[in-house]
Design a protein that fits this description.
Blueprint (H helix, E strand, L loop, with lengths): L3 E3 L2 E5 L5 H13 L13 H12 L4 H9 E3 L9 H12 L4 H28 L45
Antiparallel strand pairs: 1-2, 2-3
Length: 170
């Protein structure tokens, strides 16, 4: 992650974090369901990346997770708290500017890259991914097609209703 300015505030990656931060982050990763996500045999990398993103954004916890990975630039790592992470996440979640929303999507994708890489690694080493086995069943409603995560004219029209800010019409 990198230093960014979003809605007039500067944020930096949390580095040299406290043990509280480490434990809190691991719990949030579990809450988001990212601790057990695996790539299905035969699943395209783009499909897997989209599924990781959708899993992370199911209940808005993705903003808390992002708020736990970035902090206001003036705050020292030892002063990080779960409340600060939530406040930072809310700051990101309430952004309405199309360019800043695009930047936040990029930050979320950057934060989730580690989970994507982990899933690809598991696919290469897991016996479940053997070509002799049938592909793992797809989740209910999975069509194999992806909707774009790139912003269009409405900028967040492709995002699920649950993660559209209130300032934007459905």
């Amino acid at each position: 992650m990198r230093t960014v300015t979003i809605a007039g505030r500067k944020f930096k990656p949390v580095t040299d974090s406290t043990i509280e931060h480490d434990v809190w982050t691991m719990e949030l990763i579990k809450k988001c369901g990212l601790d057990v996500i695996e790539m299905y045999a035969g699943e395209a990398a783009e499909e897997f990346a989209h599924r990781v993103f959708m899993q992370a954004s199911k209940d808005m916890a993705v903003f808390d997770l992002l708020g736990g990975l970035l902090m206001p630039i003036a705050i020292k790592p030892e002063n990080w708290t779960p409340e600060l992470a939530h406040e930072t996440g809310r700051h990101f979640a309430l952004v309405c500017d199309p360019e800043e929303k695009k930047a936040i999507r990029s930050l979320i994708a950057e934060a989730l890259m580690g989970f994507f890489a982990k899933g690809l690694s598991r696919l290469k080493t897991s016996p479940k991914s053997s070509k002799s086995e049938e592909a793992k069943p797809q989740p209910s409603g999975h069509t194999g097609e992806l909707s774009s995560m790139e912003p269009g004219p409405d900028s967040s029209a492709n995002w699920p209703e649950t993660i559209r800010p209130a300032c934007e019409p459905s």
